[in-house]
Amino acid sequence: MSSDLDRALDEAVLAAKSALTRCTTVDDWEAAATAHLGRKSAINGLLRQIATLPTDQRGPFGKRANESSRTLTAEFDARKADLLANSLAAVRDFDPSTPGVALRRGHEHPVLAIRREVEDVFVSMGFRVQDGPEVETEAYNFEALNIPSHHPARDFQDTFWVDDPAGRRLVMRTHTSPMQVRAMRQFGAPLRVIVPGRVYRNETADATHESAFHQVEGLVVDRGISVAHLKGVMAAVLGRLFGGEVAVRLRPHYFPFVEPGFELDFQCRFCAGAGCAVCKGTGWIELLGCGLVHAHVLKAGGVDPEAFTGFAFGLGLDRLTMMRHGVEDIRHFHGGDLRFFEQF
Ligand code: DAH
Question: What is the pTM of this model?
Answer without folding.
Answer: 0.71
